[in-house]
Specification:
The complex is a heterodimer of chains A (118) and B (873). Chain A has 118 residues and is an alpha+beta fold. Chain A has a single domain, classed as Winged helix-like DNA-binding domain superfamily/Winged helix DNA-binding domain (Arc Repressor Mutant, subunit A). Chain A contains 4 helices and 3 strands. A 3-stranded antiparallel sheet of chain A has the order 1-3-2. In chain A, β2 and β3 form a beta hairpin. Chain A starts with 15 loop residues before the first helix and ends with a helix. Chain B is α+β, with helices and mostly antiparallel strands. Chain B folds into 4 domains: 64 residues, no CATH class; 182 residues, no CATH class; 307 residues, no CATH class; 196 residues, no CATH class. Helices cover 54% and strands 15% of the residues of chain B. Chain B has 29 helices and 22 strands. Chain B has a 6-stranded mixed beta barrel with strand order 3-4-9-6-8-7. In chain B, α26 packs across α29. Classes of the chains: A alpha+beta (118), B alpha+beta (873). At the A-B interface, α2, α3 and β3 of A face α2 and α4 of B.
Chain lengths: 118, 873
């Protein structure tokens, strides 16, 4: 309701934003703006993350201990908050990636079978 | 914890959140400019993409997990602000709660110190008391010395110690002074686990006849007579004319069923009772040996008791030992009373809570528009409930804090009021347990009275409120308010009727006949000159001299001696039988036995029923019995001239029968197990017993003037040739008789206070609820008056509403009172079920007060101006 989005492209299945963030953060310490940029780049503009979703998610993950954060100088010379993956976050990422793969595989199978039947 | 740290650094956390989002925004603007927008376009686009900054922040705060704490803090400050804005409301609520929690805290402080805290000995839970028990009189028996010695050598599970009471006079060093002395078995201090402050405890070498006389002195005696010098060890002390050597000093707070000044070794005593297995005069304690349980020790003792019965059938058949945890033995007697008072106080607290709850409820209803606005702005139901609970908790804690202050002031007067001596009174302090208790009670009550108004605020109803404009709808709260009033009145009825019944009890009891003339009688204990105690003939002469000197005091008509005095502590008991063959001792009926001089009957004003009382010529074998003993032993036949056999005294002849004296007090005598009473001449006491009797004889005098005026002349006259003879514990019989009702009076006073409080609070509650309900009905009354209702009709309307609640409360209260009354009857001697008159009077008091409280709002309602009331609509 709150985040009315002009382009419906960025609709993410429930809970996948956390997974994407964890994945992006494995590449090294990174600040929030860059996370959003990376997700957009890698998904070739299909997934666009709004700040209204991104920052609460980051804070939630930090609060759960999956991410840790520190303030340091960014590429522009300004202080920014950089997130990095904790050991706990790494474990969580692995588990969620596996379960995601299983799920998408299964969905693919179902969709494929349906196509055959038609 | 991290959330605590984060809360403390809340401003820093907020600044960081702001910086983080600003950084993102700036990056975005920079990216837009790089993509070719102008600066203002870039900013505009970034802001659009960003959405609401505050909303993002809010969600980040939610994600942080410290949200509830921040909310709590916010609610807390808001609660303080609203309370400050309505100081009247806050003051009434806090005072009400302070009264309730203060009274509860006082009771808990006493209960904590007396019932809950362990006794002041190391490993006190391993300490037990040892009694002997027979089927006929239960475990009320103290130990005889031979039984104690056998128990000590035979028991594997217990280390026992015993002591015997004995007054005494210290005559050197310092002035002659009567002191409390006890004779203790050598291991008493080690059994209790109390180390001596100085010197040594007694050892086995001290605990036998003929050993060098040694003494342990109290800290008080050490300070007052030896100046607290370590050199006191080894110095002499003269007690009752005998020379002792000080070997030890007890620690300052040491108590043994009261304060003791001097300890002497029990085994050195030459008292003939020491050899007598039937003389039960030694209280005993024991420490469970490591590994032994109470049950194991009890069965160990059962076996020992069985063996003793086999060895000494005459004295020990049907006799066993009984153990009790020491704490229970020390305070078991006051437990029901304390719990009863806690219950009564709890009712007062509950009434206070309900009062505050109805105040809060009324306020919640009038605040509905505000709450509706909050819901519209996004507050959830849980949030509203939490908000309301925070406010009530703030009130409760403030009330609790004030209550603790009240308790700190009130607990000492309360103990001073306690009838007789409250066991462990000196240990009563406010401590962390009490604070914890009060805080817990406050939080609990806060939740209790906050919950009803809090849960009432259903979100849907509030939406309707908003839609309906600013008008509030009291409908739902009316039922809750009525329930509050009904339960308050019910509880007030319980306390009022209990107080009324308790109030009548001492009145009724003091009109009972004590069996003697208590007016113009003075009694006192006498400590003979120590020189007179050394041989029996001298003691007898000294006692005759005491009587002569007393009779010489102007205003004294007659004087007598007795070893026991009615309605005062300390008694002498003897087993008796009427057939020439003695039944086993454990089967013997027991009688109170008074050793008296011939004038006893005259001084005490006891009626002679049959035969005669003693003369100076009665030297051997005569007794006088009271009518209760006569009935038990001889039934309808005339006892005069009959044989009566007494333990330790052998056959005697009954020469007279006298009226029964309520020895155990006006209230308690009827329910006492031991009511038979016999009298024998003091002259009949054998020489061997003279030292024991001389140490506890008392004197009673009948005066022609007010008895207290003869105290000083009597004291002067009795000082004796050596100036070292003293009277102490001087009382009038009227004081003793009145003191025997002190428990009843104490309860009457406290219940009176509680009932008064309850009545006051209930009236405030009724007034508050009705004032509120009436104000809600102002528009209705306006309509009614506009179409012709008179002021009287409106008053009637309001009173009818309150009368319904009051009557329902009274009915519920009467039912509850019947249950509560039975509890009181069990706990208070002489208490009878509430009489209909008491019931009616107390209910009438309540009804009048309640109607007065409802009349004020009713009158106010009748004065409203219909036009302005309608406009309010």
């Amino acid at each position: 309701m709150r985040h009315q989005d002009p382009s419906p492209k960025s609709d993410l299945p429930q809970g996948t934003l956390d997974l994407l963030i964890l994945k992006i953060v494995t590449m090294g310490p990174i600040h929030g703006y860059a996370i959003a940029q990376r997700i957009q780049q890698i998904s070739r503009d299909v997934v666009q993350v709004q700040q209204g979703s991104l920052y609460p998610a980051l804070h939630r993950l930090e609060n759960k201990g999956l991410l840790s954060a520190e303030w340091k100088e960014s590429e522009t010379g300004r202080e920014a908050k950089f997130y990095r993956l904790t050991a706990k976050g790494r474990k969580q990422l692995k588990e969620e990636t596996e379960s995601w793969a299983r799920l998408t595989g299964a969905i693919g199978l179902i969709l494929g079978a349906e196509g055959d039947a038609q | 914890m991290t959330w605590l740290r984060r809360l403390r650094n809340n401003t820093q956390v907020e600044a960081q959140l702001d910086a983080e989002l600003r950084f993102d925004y700036d990056q975005r603007v920079a990216a837009n400019i790089r993509a070719g927008m102008s600066e203002s376009e870039a900013q505009c686009a970034a802001r659009l993409a960003f959405g609401g900054l505050e909303q993002i922040k809010e969600e980040c705060r939610d994600a942080r997990g410290t949200r509830w704490l921040l909310d709590l803090w916010q609610d807390f400050r808001y609660a303080l602000r609203t309370l400050r804005r309505k100081p009247g409301f806050a003051a009434v609520a806090i005072l009400t709660l302070a009264l309730g929690s203060g009274a509860t805290t006082v009771m808990f402080t006493v209960i904590n110190a007396v019932l809950l805290k362990p006794l002041p000995y190391p490993d006190a839970d391993r300490l037990v008391t040892v009694n002997e028990a027979t089927e006929k009189y239960g475990d009320t028996w103290q130990l005889s010395y031979p039984d104690f010695i056998d128990l000590k050598s035979a028991s594997r599970s217990l280390a026992p110690a015993a002591w015997g009471y004995k007054g005494g006079t210290i005559s050197a060093p310092g002035d002659a002074e009567h002191v409390d002395s006890v004779q203790i078995s050598s291991d008493l201090f080690s059994v209790l686990g109390v180390p001596l402050l100085r010197g040594r405890a007694f050892g086995p070498q001290d605990d036998r006849p003929g050993a060098p006389p040694v003494v342990i002195i109290s800290y008080r005696v050490w300070q007052s007579r030896y100046g607290g010098t370590p050199a006191a060890i080894g110095m002499p002390l003269v007690l009752d004319g005998n020379h002792y050597t000080v070997v030890g000093v007890a620690p300052p707070d040491f108590q043994l069923a009261g304060e003791v000044d001097v300890f002497t070794p029990l085994g050195q005593t030459t008292d003939p009772r020491m050899q007598n297995r039937e003389a039960h005069f030694l209280p005993a304690v024991a420490r469970l040996r490591p590994g032994a349980t109470l049950a194991a020790a009890q069965s160990d003792l059962a076996l020992i008791g069985h063996n003793l019965a086999g060895q000494y059938p005459k004295s020990n058949v049907g006799r066993t030992f009984q153990l009790h945890p020491m704490l229970e033995a020390a305070v078991g007697g006051v437990r029901p009373l304390l719990l009863l008072l806690l219950g009564a106080v709890g009712l007062v607290l509950l009434i206070a809570c309900i009062n505050v709850a109805s105040l809060l409820l009324a306020r919640a209803v009038s605040r509905e528009p505000e709450l509706a606005m909050r819901v519209a702005l996004g507050a959830g139901r849980g949030r509203l409930v939490r908000h309301a609970l925070t406010e009530s908790t703030v009130l409760a804690l403030a009330g609790g804090a004030l209550g603790i202050l009240l308790a700190a002031v009130g607990v000492r007067p309360f103990i001073a009021l306690w009838p007789g001596a409250l066991p462990r009174a000196e240990e009563v302090h406010l401590d962390w347990r009490v604070l914890l208790f009060t805080v817990a009670v406050s939080l609990l009550t806060g939740t209790l009275f906050g919950l009803a108004p809090a849960l009432r605020t259903s979100v849907r109803a509030l939406n309707q409120t908003l839609r309906a404009g600013a008008r509030s709808s009291p409908g739902g709260s009316r039922r809750l308010h009525s329930a509050f009033v009904v339960s308050q009145i019910a509880m007030a009825v319980v306390l009022l009727v209990a107080a009324g019944t308790l109030g009548r009890t001492p009145l009724r009891l003091s009109s009972l006949d004590p069996g003697m003339n208590v007016h113009n009688v003075l009694v006192a204990r006498v400590a003979l000159a120590p020189g007179a105690l050394t041989n029996p003939a001298q003691s007898r002469a000294a006692w005759r001299d005491v009587l002569d000197r007393a009779r010489a005091v102007p205003g004294i008509e007659s004087a007598t001696l007795s070893d026991i005095i009615p309605m005062r502590e300390g008694q002498d008991e003897l087993g008796y039988w009427t057939t020439p063959v003695q039944p086993p001792t454990s089967q013997l009926p027991i009688a109170l036995a008074s050793a008296v001089t011939p004038d006893y009957l005259k001084v005490m004003g006891i009626t002679l029923r049959k035969g005669r009382f003693f003369t100076d010529q009665d030297r051997t074998g005569n007794v006088v019995i009271d009518e209760v003993l006569a009935q038990h032993a001889f039934g309808q036949t005339d006892p005069v001239g009959k044989r009566l056999f007494l333990q330790e005294m052998g056959p005697t002849t009954v020469v007279g029968v006298v009226g029964h004296v309520r020895h155990w007090g006006l209230a308690d005598d009827d329910g006492s197990q031991l009511r038979d009473h016999l009298y024998f001449p003091f002259a009949q006491v054998p020489d061997t017993f003279m030292p024991v009797f001389s140490s506890f004889m008392s004197m009673a005098v009948r005066t022609s003037v007010s008895p207290l005026t003869v105290v000083e002349p009597l004291r002067r006259n009795l000082r004796g040739t050596g100036g070292d003879q003293a009277i102490y514990e001087v009382r009038t019989m009227e004081q003793l008789a009145s003191r025997s009702l002190s428990r009843q009076r104490f309860l009457m006073l406290l219940f009176g206070i509680f009932a008064g409080l309850a009545l006051l609070l209930a009236c405030i509650g009724i007034y508050g609820v009705l004032a509120y309900l009436t104000s809600q009905r102002v528009p209705e009354f306006g309509v009614r008056m506009a179409i012709g209702a008179k002021a009287g009709d409106v008053i009637q309307l309001v009173l009818r509403q309150s009368a319904g609640m009051i009557i329902a409360g009274v009915v519920a209260g009467i039912l509850a009172t019947m249950a509560a009354g039975r509890l009181l009857e069990r706990l208070v001697a002489g208490m009878r079920p509430a009489e209909p008159l008491t019931f009616a009077a107390m209910v009438a008091v309540l009804l009048i007060a309640a109607l007065l409280a409802s009349f004020v709002p009713a009158r106010r309602a009748s004065h409203i101006d219909p036009m302005s009331a309608l406009r309010q609509e």
